[in-house]
Predict the 3D structure of the following.
Amino acid sequence: MTLSSEEIRTELKRAGMRPTAQRLTICQYVLNQANHPSVEDIKAWVDDKFPGISLATVYNTVHALETAGLVQAIRFDHSDKVIYDSNTEPHFHFLDEDSGTLLDIQPEQVQINLNLPEDVLVNDISILIRGKRQ
Ligand SMILES: [Zn+2]
C-alpha cells in the first residue's frame, strides 16, 4: 500500500499529530520505501534529511502510524528490536540470514495443517522462515 503525501497528512491529523515536514518524511519512508525498519533504522535514514531529529520524534511518529493502523509493530525471536511493517494484511516472513532482511510471504504460499485439541481457538499464527536467498 502506497500513500500519497495528502493521505499521510490526513492520517497524521486523525492521530492527533501536526503533519510537520519531519513527520511526513518519516511516514513516507516507513510507509512507502522502507522494508520492515526498526526505529533505529528509521532514525539513521532520516538523519540525512533532518540532522538532529530526535529519537523521540521518530518513536512518536511511528506510534501514531501504529495507532492509525497503517503499520504493525512486530518483534521476532531473532532480534530484540521491534520492526514496523507497512503491510498490515495477515502474512508471514522469510528472514534472509545473510543480510538480515525480511521478505513478506503471502499466506497462500504456506500450507498449514493444524491438528489441535478441539478446545483451542486460534487467533493468530506467526511464522518466521529462516534461510538464504540464492
Ligand atoms: Zn511484513
Remarks:
- The chain has a mean pLDDT of 91.
- The chain has two domains: 5-84, 89-131.
- Residues 41 and 99 are 14 Å apart (CA to CA).
